[in-house]
Amino acid sequence: MSKKVITVTESIQLEEIQLEDFKTLSTLMNEVYKAAYKHFWKDEGSWYVQTQFSKNNLEKELLEDNTNYYFILYNGEKVGIFRILWGKKLGGFDNQKMVKLHRIYLHEKTQGKGVGKQLLTWLEEEAIKKQYELIWLDTMDEKPQAFEFYKKVGYQYHSHCFLDFELIFDKMRKMSQVYKKLS
What we know:
The chain is an alpha+beta fold. The protein is 31% helix and 31% strand. The chain has an 8-stranded mixed β-sheet, with helices on both faces. The chain contains 5 helices and 8 strands. The protein has helices at 22-37, 46-52, 55-63, 115-129, 144-152, and strands at residues 5-7, 12-16, 67-74, 77-86, 98-106, 134-140, 156-162, 174-181.
């Protein structure tokens, strides 16, 4: 089965993740996720990577309706993941058509190169084409640079919650929901 590849820019592509990619996904996220978040976890993020990026969880997530799950390629190299949940609701906006950016993880070597911004712009354009009115996502409060990045590109604070994962440090549990209305 051939994989769907979307060209975002000359240097950025999205390659559809399929079940047979589970080892590549796990290996990539072991590097990318842990580099960014290992200090959040008592086990340096091993449990999270093993559960969220396992073959079983990938199979479950690929079977969900109205989702897209991609590897992010930068200059031909897999540098992260991008998962979109079309139609996923954010409380308080019940009458609007919305999309959740469920996962965007990028290798630290891509920081400052505009990859995240280009991906968000692409998602906004796709959402507008499909007549969506709002994009939202979760961002970890203990990652202030991420929160500031989303604010800079037009996202606003909506609410927050606290993760109940046993192995996450208490001070790292807060996660905010941010959103952007599309015009």
